[in-house]
């Protein structure tokens, strides 16, 4: 990159130097002095490119030739800047350049507020000049066409009209997109070829055919649907002939049913009316019979009423006597209960006397037993007085018991301490914070694995295989870098991820190469997985020191090196230091970005980072000048999840240490429990012995106390003797008092018994009188019972017949009204003959109705809409629609056939021409290649594609060109020769290919160059730009080609000192001397 301190150099239209940062020296055999006059320029060719404050250029004007233009210059001089100017000046997108930045302002020279591009295109009737002014501040562009302001869409339309397609890799192939050409699918390659070399209408015909095919499928489906509907309608119409006859037969049955339904209410009315007449006559006869029966029963009923009047006073007296008898009986019962209570009281007095006698007998027995007990205790006391003293032994046992209790207290204290320590350790090892930390760390690792699985499933499958078969390897094997790299601060993840390619982030790292080969055989060859693997350097580079101490760079805003931002296993870090120089890549802040012009002048800096950008510095071997390229630092996708590996290891060690300590504490507690059990057994033995000795020592004293207690008790019992004679006298007195009360109660009881007997006799006399009257009444009732029954039955019959007459009257009125309503008759109308001529019995009508309904129900699914409907019209309508759709489909197929011929025949000829050129080019290189039109189904126009097959070795077969099968050099050769095959056929005004020869070996590069020169320098071809940083020696050149040498550096001559003729003269002299 040229610095801003260089002087601006003016461009001269006819001179050899056109740039301040680059001088483009044109060596052309027959080029005229004025551009646009040369008749070899095709419509849309580039006549002039002017760049101002654009990338590496302060100001530069470039004049390309009409045929092959070789742009040659060292790396970093600004060759690709010309490619960027062509793309952006012709309204191309930044994505076409493969740099990924949507910020158009990044293409303006650093330190400038705006940049300028002007491109002049050859056009019959007046050249087209396109201006684009790029502003950094708002990231916007201003456009002009031939000096008039316009919008970007107008520029795109003008460019499209000249058949310029900067987004077509067959026409415009930037350096970053060379690898993508081989990745294009056959379908994409066909479309790009159609747009590039085919007639303007070829791609339109192709799109039209794809749309026609979709419409054809729709019409085919419609025709099939209409044919199916028509067939079903015909089948229904065939069945309808029989259904019509059945429908009319059903209608006749329904008419008879309707007539019977009208007749039915009239028959029902007539039947009810006749029943009403009979009920009325029967009611009148019953009334006459009831009147005669009432006259015959009148004398007997008078006598019975007289007897009822005599019975009422007698029954009242019997009731009064019954009440008096009940009262007397109640009083007798009460006195009897009082006598029973007095008997019970006497029994209680006698029972109390017997209890006192029994108590005295028991008292005498206790006195006798106490005297015997005192004698026995005195004898035992005499025996105990002869035993020795046990006090010394009791004292010794007490001392030993105290010692045992002290030992037990110590053990219990130690156990309590151990339990507290165990609880603390258990709480520490199972603490929520510790468990959550470990769980969070494991979840983060799982999240990393899930991201890897979504992005690259093969690598994830290989990871599981490695975990299951790690024992197969002799050295260290590390999982993919993105899983083992741990960024210390998630804010720094974007720097690490932007610096390391994704292919290496998903790569497995091996300490030994033989382990890597064994792994690749298993997962790549046997399991057919696409994985990456890396062998770490034999000598570790992980501790390699940076070229400069970070302290010396802090004045520029650098605060650390990339290696210090993350942790990784030693082998992984060694590889990253060796391959990516992470130990020597400084990271700065906004201060670094502000001082970037000063920073890039610092030695030993190759790659550096600011807050949002990455800068790559290259020093030219020719001029020792530094060129820079910068790109935005994209947000991190995989390394933002950070897990502190050291913290995780310490936490796991802490949990393991707690578990070991807990086991030790459990063992010590078990030991202490065993010791405590031994002490408990000894303590129980000593307690038993002490108890026995204490019993022996206290036995004499206990015996003396018992004798004294028993003697006191004996004295008390002798003084508390019961007087039985006195108690007997008191009992007799109490019984005499109770007996006197009994006498008075018995006197009252006998008086009430006499009164109850008298009342009972009086009641009996009244009952006898009542029985006589009742007998006379019964005799009279028997005499008139038969007549009364018949009278009652006749009354009920009269009442029932009256109700029936009223009911039938209402029923007749309702039936008459209903019958006239059903027949839709007025009160004065006469009943129709067709109703009166039918049967006149209700049962017969019901039978006929049931029969006709059964016959009508046999004809199911028949109605006027479904049977007599317009089937013939529907079939005719469907037949017409089917004919119209079929004709439309045939016409459409005819159109498709014609469109297919218009598209496919020219396309086949075009592909055949490309194949001839492509095959010739490969044969000239002692290789083989062919291009063909590939399609699995001729009718599927969206599946057509161009297939490129190549062979670089005689021992192999033709293989399809893909991004995986061929090497990088082979893909470059294939791409270049395909573009050359398009060159003579190309209808585009120019083609740009940037550094495609970088991966070629010298032999292929020389052959390809000869083909390019021969093809691109023909008069029939369009303009061609070939950008390369180097050329082989002794290449064959043509007079029609233009060589543009891009110089950039402090040693470049100013334009006023550049003498093209002198330069050519010196070259000729040098050649002659050689």
From TrEMBL:
<dbReference type="GO" id="GO:0005634">
    <property type="term" value="C:nucleus"/>
</dbReference>
<dbReference type="GO" id="GO:0003697">
    <property type="term" value="F:single-stranded DNA binding"/>
</dbReference>
<feature type="coiled-coil region">
    <location>
        <begin position="212"/>
        <end position="296"/>
    </location>
</feature>
<dbReference type="GO" id="GO:0005524">
    <property type="term" value="F:ATP binding"/>
</dbReference>
<feature type="coiled-coil region">
    <location>
        <begin position="777"/>
        <end position="818"/>
    </location>
</feature>
<keyword id="KW-0175">Coiled coil</keyword>
<feature type="domain" description="RecF/RecN/SMC N-terminal">
    <location>
        <begin position="46"/>
        <end position="1030"/>
    </location>
</feature>
<feature type="compositionally biased region" description="Polar residues">
    <location>
        <begin position="12"/>
        <end position="25"/>
    </location>
</feature>
<dbReference type="GO" id="GO:0030915">
    <property type="term" value="C:Smc5-Smc6 complex"/>
</dbReference>
<comment type="similarity">
    <text>Belongs to the SMC family. SMC5 subfamily.</text>
</comment>
<keyword id="KW-0067">ATP-binding</keyword>
<protein>
    <recommendedName>
        <fullName>Structural maintenance of chromosomes protein 5</fullName>
    </recommendedName>
</protein>
<comment type="subunit">
    <text>Forms a heterodimer with smc6. Component of the SMC5-SMC6 complex which consists at least of smc5, smc6, nsmce2, nsmce1 and nsmce4a.</text>
</comment>
<feature type="coiled-coil region">
    <location>
        <begin position="875"/>
        <end position="902"/>
    </location>
</feature>
<feature type="coiled-coil region">
    <location>
        <begin position="648"/>
        <end position="713"/>
    </location>
</feature>
<dbReference type="Pfam" id="PF02463">
    <property type="entry name" value="SMC_N"/>
</dbReference>
<keyword id="KW-0779">Telomere</keyword>
<keyword id="KW-0158">Chromosome</keyword>
<comment type="function">
    <text>Core component of the SMC5-SMC6 complex, a complex involved in repair of DNA double-strand breaks by homologous recombination. The complex may promote sister chromatid homologous recombination by recruiting the SMC1-SMC3 cohesin complex to double-strand breaks. The complex is required for telomere maintenance via recombination and mediates sumoylation of shelterin complex (telosome) components. Required for sister chromatid cohesion during prometaphase and mitotic progression; the function seems to be independent of SMC6.</text>
</comment>
<keyword id="KW-0547">Nucleotide-binding</keyword>
<dbReference type="GO" id="GO:0000781">
    <property type="term" value="C:chromosome, telomeric region"/>
</dbReference>
<keyword id="KW-0539">Nucleus</keyword>
<feature type="coiled-coil region">
    <location>
        <begin position="325"/>
        <end position="428"/>
    </location>
</feature>
<dbReference type="InterPro" id="IPR027417">
    <property type="entry name" value="P-loop_NTPase"/>
</dbReference>
<feature type="region of interest" description="Disordered">
    <location>
        <begin position="1"/>
        <end position="25"/>
    </location>
</feature>
<dbReference type="GO" id="GO:0000724">
    <property type="term" value="P:double-strand break repair via homologous recombination"/>
</dbReference>
<dbReference type="InterPro" id="IPR003395">
    <property type="entry name" value="RecF/RecN/SMC_N"/>
</dbReference>
<feature type="compositionally biased region" description="Basic residues">
    <location>
        <begin position="1"/>
        <end position="11"/>
    </location>
</feature>
